[in-house]
Amino acid sequence: MVATGSGTKSGKAFYVTTPIYYVNDAPHLGHAYTTVAGDVLTRWHRQRGERVWFLTGTDEHGQKVLRTAESKGVSPQEWCDKLVEEAWKPLWQHLEIANDDFIRTTEKRHTDRVREFVQDLYDKGEIYKGGYEGPYCVGCEEYKLPGELLEGTGENAGKQLCPIHKRPVEILKEENYFFRLSEYADKLLAHYEANPGFIQPESARNEVLSFVRQGLQDLSISRSTFDWGVPVPWDDDHVIYVWVDALLNYATAVGYNQNQETFDASFPADVHLLGKDILRFHAVIWPALLMANGLPLPGRIVANGWLLVGGEKMSKSNLTGISPRQITSHFGVDAFRWYLLRAIAYGQDGSFSWEDLAARYTSELANDYGNLASRVAAMVGKYFDGVLPDASADGDAEQAVHDGLARAVAEADRKIGDDVEFQAGLLAIFEFIKQVNGYISEQEPWKVAKDDSPEARARLATILYTAAESLRAVAVLLHPFMPASSQKLWESLGAEPALGPLADQRVQEAGQWGRLPAGSTVTKGAALFPRLEEQPGA
């Protein structure tokens, strides 16, 4: 992982979380999707000058992890340690994920606080002992309602299947401790009504509303049929239900019951990012637990859709899991990060396609964006010996570019920073890139350069300054999505000596025209996005 500094504003941090991921296997493309989204969102807010805290991590307890470890012939802890250090953390580092913390649910800082939280609920009378029998999906670590189950076919004929994992459920009967979740239905509905943006997108909100309006059952918050988990503090024969354990990471990671100052400066999360298959845990169980313990609720719960391959949800159990490194080895990390948020509207299902990625890479990254950067640098080098000229002949064409940039910055900032709509924000940025390409085509600087008159030289200087200054702004706007290529462009424009590091640039300043000083040294380096046939291994 890449540790980063906080922003400059005082007060509560802008706190963003991903789910903590099960370590029963290595991460796949679906895990990367949510994590890249969190990284882009927090990078954007850092570039707003805000103090930011970005949390991710791993969920290491529960029956699913236990069974996986047993099948490998190792202890659950050994399995978790291996996967975290050899698969999860290295991938996030590879993908340039700038998380501030990485929480593991086997860490003492977490397990001690979980026991304290549950003990508080028990002391308040929110937990009681009872029995339960019902269909249980180990993959989801959740009891299922009979109406949710699918009828099996083929080798699973006569069996009932989990609708998500498409595997037979098990009928479990055990004596457990229960949280009085049923008593929170009206309180949850009141909160949803008072805070219509609490659950996003609208389809996710509607699903949760429908579910809660049907009435809630009390939640079994312990298990007694296995022991891989956090022991219930008042009964060592039980371990705390893995989802209660897992959800509490959002509080334990920022100092719950350990460092009140740190906790107050971060909690609650401003945005929980998660896959829609775990929406109910976050939008129903999590706020109910917080209400029961008198803690503030998160700002927003944003559910992304499923990445589909061949019409199937991407997961190991459905054999559609794709390793992100398979993609980055061919297209590069920046293109991978960009495509995940460019191709699919966040919150909707969408299909991953190698062919679509290749087509968009060529059209939008290599041709529209990369070629623009190369052409501008080459012309500054050819006509002004690599020294950025001053703009002294602005006209209506330049004013149109200035106005276009202002629109792009405002739209991108609203869509990405406020609405968590990455695709719409990227479209605004790339619409501006297309505008600049059109501007150069219309102004034809290669023709203007043939005239040696002072007026023509001033006009040529203005055209190239306008294009370079536009690219300066684009480097800032695309930095959260594509940090490596944006840094290359920043260096190519000679921006760092005058303006400072790219990571320190503010979104608000991106639209302020004229920040790139004349006299900067512009260099033409390697293509930002090489033609795919030129890439090793292509």
From TrEMBL:
Q: Which residues bind Zn(2+)?
A: 137, 140, 162, 165
Provide the protein's localization.
Cytoplasm
Question: Which keywords fit this entry according to its UniProt record?
Answer: Aminoacyl-tRNA synthetase, ATP-binding, Cytoplasm, Ligase, Metal-binding, Nucleotide-binding, Protein biosynthesis, Zinc
State the InterPro entries in the record. Anticodon_Met, Met-tRNA_synth, Met-tRNA_synth_2, Methionyl/Leucyl_tRNA_Synth, MetRS_core, Rossmann-like_a/b/a_fold, tRNAsynth_Ia_anticodon-bd
Where would I look for the motif 'HIGH' region in this sequence?
21-31
Residues in Methionyl-tRNA synthetase anticodon-binding domain copies: 388-534
Q: Sum up the protein's function in the record's words.
A: Is required not only for elongation of protein synthesis but also for the initiation of all mRNA translation through initiator tRNA(fMet) aminoacylation.
Which family does this protein fall into?
Answer: Belongs to the class-I aminoacyl-tRNA synthetase family. MetG type 2A subfamily.
Q: How does it assemble?
A: Monomer.
Protein name per UniProt: Methionine--tRNA ligase
Organism expressing this protein natively? Nonomuraea composti
